[in-house]
Amino acid sequence: LAKTTQPISMDSYEGQEVNITCSHNNIATNDYITWYQQFPSQGPRFIIQGYKTKVTNEVASLFIPADRKSSTLSLPRVSLSDTAVYYCLQEAGYALNFGKGTSLLVTP
Amino acid sequence: GAGVSQSPRYKVAKRGQDVALRCDPISGHVSLFWYQQALGQGPEFLTYFQNEAQLDKSGLPSDRFFAERPEGSVSTLKIQRTQQEDSAVYLCASSLVRVRTDTQYFGPGTRLTVL
Question: Chain B closest CA to A6's CA: distance in Å?
Answer without folding.
Answer: 13
